[in-house]
Specification:
The protein is of the alpha+beta class. It is built from ten helices and eleven strands. The chain starts with 7 loop residues before the first strand and ends with a helix.
Length: about 375
Amino acid sequence: MTRPEPSIASATLDAFFIFDVADTIDLAAVGRNMSAQPAPLRPRAPLSAGSIRFAVPPLLVGLPPATIAGRAGTAAAKIFDFGVVSVRFAFPYSGSWAGYAALASELRHDDDLPATARRLLDGLLAGCAAALDDPHEPLLEDYFICTVDRFDEDVTASALLSEHRGALAALVLAESAELGTEAQSDALRLSFSYYPDDLVVVLWDAAFVYENRDDAEVIHDLLEFANSQLVEFRTYDARLDGELDTIYAMETSTKNALGPFRRRTADARAEQLRYLMVDVRELADRASNALKIIGDAYYARIYRGIASRLGIEDWQRQIESKLDSVGEVYRYLIDQAQIARSEFLEIIVIVLIAIEIVVGIIGLRR
């Protein structure tokens, strides 16, 4: 006999819309222009032996409440120094499991939610435009977290993963139909528990967190940070693609140019690529090293889990591969500039010899 799903005493549907908006953001300038407060990571209670912290704590900015599909929720923004702004919504809920699943599915498929996030982002950026270094058209990643603080009855992590397995998988996948065994196993493959009555399940676009509110916030921050890394790496990847396409088009259009013009063009393109390689590596290192997890195995496991779901290491390898390609193009352009310079010098020498011969012939005729 299948047990009915437990009723929920306190929960939220948390939606994160994470935008890459600039190369970097001057958090000190943001703090001078608007009301914001540092948002460091809070340790788990009771304190663990390890530590978890941001290298540079982001700033938290309050935003006007949002009402989506008739449901009221709170909104806030978190601003990271490596150029990312996360707009966060929280919609409270209490009641039946079925009602919570319906809320999650409704909001995850409502187009008004990302539109509201973009509207709030535009207002936020207008107030701190001077703090943005090299702003660009925002690139978006979204992530949804079903966060349960308390059930109406005592529920353990093992019960959720066994007795309510199908309902839990359907919740995180936003599916209303019953799922097959394979789909359930894949959805719940990465699950983590520290105590018998807490649980974290991570997917590439959503998660389930059964935890008290304070500790859930730390897990939210980990999931949010991993998504901020993803949107950063997507930005770098697109930038490298664009630069390589531009360089190829320029090379095709100038391959028949005369020596001095070809040399100047090659020098300019090589300098452009050198700056690109340094810039992307510096920004990627800043994003990769923004979070420090030392000795806290539980949080480290959760971070590695979400990073694997998002393919963070694959994106890093892809960017490194493209940087290697950019490096090869850079070396080619340097060689082309040197060849063009040598050809130009040879032409000058030939011209000078010709002038000397002509002058000599004219002298002999006199």
